[in-house]
Amino acid sequence: MARQTVVALLYNDIPDTVEAAEPPVDLSPEALGFTPYFDLEDIPAEEEFATIEQALTEAGYKVASYNIKDRFERLFKFLARRKIDVVFNFVEFFHGRPEEEMHIASFFELLEVPYTGATPLALALAQNKPLAKSILRSYDLPTPRSMTVHYKRNVSASMAEFKSRHNLHYPLIVKPACEDGSGGIENASIVSTPRALRERVEFVIEEFKMDALIEEYIEGRELNVAVLGNGAERRALPISEITFEDMPEHLYKIVSFEAKWAPLHEAYHKTIPSCPADLPKAKTLEAQELALRATEALGTRDYARVDIRMDKNGNFYILEVNPNPNLSEGTGIARSAEAAGMKFQDLLQTIVESALERSTKSVSEQSSS
Questions:
Q1: Across-strand partners of 240?
Q2: How many angstroms separate the Cα of 189 from the Cα of each of 153, 175, 303?
Q3: pLDDT over 80 (residue 25)
Q4: Does the reported pTM lie above 0.90?
Q5: pLDDT per residue over 194-250, tens digit each?
Q6: Domains of the chain: which residue ranges?
Q7: Higher-confidence residue: 361 or 195?
Q8: How many angstroms separate the CA atoms of 294 and 85, rounded?
Q9: What's the pLDDT band for 23 if we cut at 50, 70, 90?
Q10: Which of 150, 151, 190 has the alpha carbon at shortest distance from 169?
Q11: What is the fold of 145-216?
Q12: Number of other residues whose CB lies within 10 A of the CB of residue 87
């Protein structure tokens, strides 16, 4: 009987030690001020990973799930005492810092442990939005015009070289340069005057202690293009669109932090996914080709998501390349996979097998050399 492939499902979930505020007792539309579209309760991380573990088990793998709980020694000991064929890497931050994500992948590299998803370099490049945009431009890929205000010790030093005069066209959107998951992006991020721009840049620098990225805001449709595979086998899945038809006038049509993570915020219920997106075939193929080129430029592996805006004239602008995007069942890339006829376990199996194939090739190359 063939030995089962052992998949280590590794993630980092830190329980909140501060008692969370109780939600309003009355969750009726009248009390909330809007009609909820999604559930109002967050799904616990353990429940999400249990679903992934079950799907991998049904696909025929032996799965060992493990929460490293922000402790490097837990990660090291787990890998040292287990016979692992491949790590499914779900660690998105370490010590509360998204920029530490790449170091976990570096650890796998040093131990020569096969793992899913992007390399440390790809994670670092994608994390730094201004740098990623520079790479995209070098590949003649469209991205909104932008400028960066650099963080220098404190707000005063950072703003000393800031010039309100620039060649960008309002409205503009101001983002923390190296945050994940729409961190620091909210309704106030979009500005239309020099004074508002300066205030928002000061806020980002002071609050996040990092560079502030200023981009021209592209009004239009928001498209998510999922990409699977590597090299010549890299392929784009059906496009998912985040629709804003029901977004109230006082909220900009953006996927803000609240729209992603705050179930009691109106924006969370007014950014509705639609897959496949209703686009002409030619525009669908164009967007998918841009996504394939963008993921190749940034060097993502196995799976990724490219966020694109399409303006009223049908022009595309790449907002961001996301290596190792959310894989929760029924959301994001899983939604696109389903539209392509793939079951959830098929999607996970495709990613695992990509990592295993890469490992097998590496061993074969070492043996022949």
A1: 224
A2: 23, 7, 29
A3: no
A4: yes
A5: 889 999 999 999 999 999 999 999 999 999 999 999 999 999 999 999 999 999 999
A6: 6-129+219-368, 145-216
A7: 195
A8: 30
A9: low
A10: 190
A11: Dna Ligase; domain 1 (3.30.1490)
A12: 29
Tokens of 369: 């050399």
| Candidate CATH numbers 2.60.40.3200, 3.30.460.10, 3.30.470.20, 3.40.190.10; the one for domain 6-129+219-368 | 3.30.470.20
Using pLDDT thresholds of 50, 70 and 90, give the confidence band for residue 367: very low
